[in-house]
Amino acid sequence: MEEFSAAGFAEYLALIRSASRKDSEQVYSVPTLNAKIVAKILFGALDEMATNWILSPRRYKLAPMADQVLDIFLNGVSAK
């Protein structure tokens, strides 16, 4: 991470922000959300999952977790 440039990181977050938009309309429905913060939250979740996967002595597939991450990201967490 030390070798990762600030400009590279900014480009990566911009890519996440652009992926969260559809026809210039944000996918998330709360207009007061800051797009940069939303991108950082998603990046943080993905970064933690990938780091844990890499460091885990257990072998498991990472891809099946994507649906759960997107569900939580788009719909939030609530008690049932």
Describe the 3D structure:
There is one protein chain. The chain has about 80 residues and is mainly alpha-helical. It is about 55% helix and about 5% strand. It is built from three helices and two strands. Strands 1-2 form a two-stranded antiparallel sheet. A hairpin with a 2-residue loop joins strand 1 and strand 2. Helix 1 packs across helix 2. It is flat, with a radius of gyration of 14 Å. The N and C termini lie far apart (about 40 Å). The mean pLDDT is about 75.
Approximate strand percentage: 5-15%
Could you tell me the radius of gyration in angstroms?
14 Å
Give the total of beta strands.
2
Largest sheet: 2 strands, antiparallel
Q: What is the average per-residue confidence, as pLDDT, rounded to a whole number?
A: 75
Q: What share of the residues lie within helices? A: 55-70%
What is the N-to-C order of secondary-structure elements (H for helix, E for strand)? Answer: HEEHH
Q: Structural class of the helix and strand makeup? A: mainly alpha
Strand order, biggest sheet? 1-2
Shape: flat
Terminal Cα span:
38 Å
Alpha plus pi helix count: 3
Low-confidence stretches: none
